[in-house]
Amino acid sequence: MLDKTGILQHVAKTDTTYDVLVAGAGPAGIGAALAAASAGAHTAILEARGFFGGVAAVSHWMPMNRLFLRGESRGAIHSLFIDKLRSLGPDACREGKTSWVDGDGLHIHPEYLRLAVYELFEETGCDYRIATPVTGTQMEGGRIVRAVSAAKDETASFAAKVLVDTTGDGDLSYHAGVPTVTGRETDGELMSVTMSFALCDVDVERLYAAIDEYGNEEFQDLIRAGEDDGYHVAAWYSFDRSTLPGIVSVNNGGWKRAGRIDATRPEELAIADRSGVQVAADFIRIVHERQVPGLEHCRLLRIGAAPGIRETRRIVGEYVMTLEDAIAGTEFPDVVARRYGAVDPGGMDEGRDLRTAMKSGHAFPYRSLLPLKVDNLLVAGRCASYTHLGLTAGKSMGNMMALGHAAGVAAAMAALEGVRPRDLPVALIQKSLREAGVEL
Ligand SMILES: Cc1cc2nc3c(=O)[nH]c(=O)nc-3n(C[C@H](O)[C@H](O)[C@H](O)COP(=O)(O)OP(=O)(O)OC[C@H]3O[C@@H](n4cnc5c(N)ncnc54)[C@H](O)[C@@H]3O)c2cc1C
Q1: Is 45 in the pocket of ligand 1 (CB under 6 A)?
Q2: Residue 196 CA: which ligand 1 atom is closest?
Q3: Angle, in degrees to the nearest 10, between helices 426-435 and 397-417
Q4: Residue 170 in contact with ligand 1 by CB distance below 6 A
Q5: CB of 400 sitting under 6 A from ligand 1
Q6: 308-309 vs 377-379, strand pairing mode
Q7: How far from 189 is each of 171, 224, 345, CA to CA, in Å?
Q8: How far is the CA of 408 from the centre of ligand 1 (A)?
Q9: What is the spatial distance between Cα 380 and Cα 402, in angstroms, rounded to a whole number?
Q10: Which of 60, 118, 257, 296 has the most CB atoms lying inside 10 A of its own CB?
Q11: If you measure from the C-alpha of residue 311 to the centroid of ligand 1, how many angstroms do you get, rounded to a whole number?
Q12: Ligand 1 within 6 A of CB of 33
């Protein structure tokens, strides 16, 4: 039974020095926080939004791909997450494989995801705090002493020995002075920003039969043709089965005419949000007017609580992971994770032909989690150290959780041993990950 005092005991405190402080509670941050707390480090996680889960939470039932490897969990942290969701009943999640990425993941009910993450943090002893964006740092030389958050009534700050940046946007690193890059190297182009939405009253079997019958592209053309009638359409659409009858989640490429959106800039994010809401509402009008099979009677159930962001800042780390590494399957002596699946260019044309090019299961080096210039910081998730296409090679959420797992283990070790993350013997991190069932 919940009680107010019990809940407050879990909330991250400003008068404590944590061993490990994680900023950002998407798949990477959840992995990092659970790993650090499970390793015995006094851990807290700060989340900017009013809920945990990152893209998984705003994109309703979109598959968290690569949570499994050959049908089995990828290690102790993935198991904690999967087992918790399964324990919440049949509506919480369902396993599924998606076509070209051969998903190997879970379609997760967004509300049960929130419950699962709360329970996991509480059970592993990880303090948490929502509505707490990291907006600055207090530095001493090359170390972050406190992460600062400008809150509604006061500016709060949180002390920690080692920090992990899993904000997706590299906010903590940016404020600490870590060099960062944004977008494609040649022109700064970014993967699209997407407002996902969910439909109810879908004739699900008829919908998937129609997609098979028309062909995926031709089926999407039925919807995209709505632009001829003045409606706002997305660059592409894809449909995920949910855990509930008649409900389907719609992933998409964002408004076709949105252009480049840098989601670290609120004015540009407004374009994605405003147009995303319109694309969702217009979708309903289009499929009704055009009697798109399976969707004739569908209704709008939910629009994402925020746009889903694929790419913003990436840090410059000790090693910059490239697409070429992913294709060649470069082995690194400091491997701390493997990325499975395919290149996922988020709808960018340049990536389309590359989808199957990468080696599924390629190595990911520890050095790509280690930022330049700051000594007590690790960075995991989509803001780690990659080239633009290096990021697209295996950006599935299960892979991001694996990077978080590695960063969390290393952060806990560094904090408990009193050494800089970059001075840790990598063999010790690898040993700990292997003992947690991670295949390196
Ligand atoms: C529309 C879309 C569709 C996708 N489709 C799939 C798919 O089908 N399957 C799949 O596996 N992957 C998919 N991906 C990729 C996958 O979702 C991402 O690669 C993954 O979510 C990245 O994880 P992350 O934890 O690094 O970042 P995010 O999920 O972006 O999480 C970052 C978290 O940090 C928080 N945050 C941001 N700034 C701050 C701050 N200053 N302080 C504190 N907290 C902060 C955010 O609120 C958020 O909760 C998709 C991505 C998008 C955007």
Answers
A1: no
A2: 1
A3: 120
A4: no
A5: yes
A6: unpaired
A7: 19, 23, 12
A8: 17
A9: 9
A10: 60
A11: 9
A12: no
Beta-ladder partners of 343? 393
pTM of the model: 0.97
Minimal-distance CA residue to ligand 1 atom 48: 54
Q: How many whole angstroms separate alpha carbon 221 and alpha carbon 363?
A: 38
* Mutation probe of ligand 1 site: the residue of 93, 132, 167 with most atoms within 8 A of C-beta: 167
In the block, residue with structure tokens 């904090």: 415
Of 192, 194, 211, residue with least CA distance to 287: 211
Tokens of 242: 């949910």
Tokens of 156: 């709060």
Question: Which protein residue's CA is at the shortest distance from atom 39 of ligand 1?
Answer: 167
For each successive 10 residues of the chain (440 residues), what is the average pLDDT? 96 97 98 98 97 95 91 94 98 78 81 97 98 97 97 89 98 98 94 96 97 96 97 96 96 94 96 98 98 98 96 98 97 97 81 82 98 98 97 95 98 98 98 98
CA of 181 to the centre of ligand 1 (A): 18
Terminal-residue alpha carbon distance, the chain? 40
Query: How far does residue 75's CA lie from ligand 1's centre (Å)?
Result: 21
All domains of the chain in start order, with CATH: 4-186+311-435 (3.50.50.60), 193-309 (3.30.70)
3-state helix, strand and coil shares in percent for the chain, rounded to the nearest 5 = 35, 25, 40
> Is the CB of 31 inside a 6 Å radius of any atom of ligand 1?
no
What local confidence, expressed as pLDDT, does residue 351 receive?
66
CA-closest residue to ligand 1 atom 12: 396
